[in-house]
Amino acid sequence: MNIDLIYTGLAALGSGLAVVGAGLGIGKIGSSAMDAIARQPESSEKIQNAMIIASALIEGAALFGIVTTLLAVFK
């Protein structure tokens, strides 16, 4: 079996897991933020700012995972 093919498959699996994990995390943050805003509409600006910051951190971690797996393939 070709070792490069194994690396490519593992990298594709790693990239997929990073994207799925980021999607689930951002979906959970969005859902929780909407629930919080529905309960306390007067503090919607603070909740929205916290949601955007958390979403950006999750996206950064997912991008780091994708870049790392691509670097493993094209080393």
Automatic annotation (TrEMBL):
Membrane topology: Multi-pass membrane protein
Entry keywords, A to Z: ATP synthesis, Cell membrane, CF(0), Hydrogen ion transport, Ion transport, Lipid-binding, Membrane, Transmembrane, Transmembrane helix, Transport
CDD domains found in the cross-reference section: ATP-synt_Fo_c (cd18121)
Keyword Transport: yes
Subcellular location: Membrane
Residues in coiled coil: none
Top-level taxon in the UniProt lineage: Bacteria
Location (main, coarse): membrane
GO molecular function, one term: proton transmembrane transporter activity
GO cellular component, one term: proton-transporting two-sector ATPase complex, proton-transporting domain
Pfam families in the record: ATP-synt_C
Residue ranges constituting the V-ATPase proteolipid subunit C-like domain according to the UniProt record: 11-71
InterPro entries referenced in this protein's UniProt entry, alphabetically: ATP_synth_csu_bac/chlpt, ATP_synth_F0_csu, ATP_synth_F0_csu_DDCD_BS, ATP_synth_F0_csu_sf, ATPase_proteolipid_c-like_dom, F/V-ATP_Csub_sf
Family to which this protein belongs: Belongs to the ATPase C chain family.
Name this protein carries in UniProt: ATP synthase F(0) sector subunit c
Native source species: Blattabacterium sp. (Beybienkoa kurandanensis)
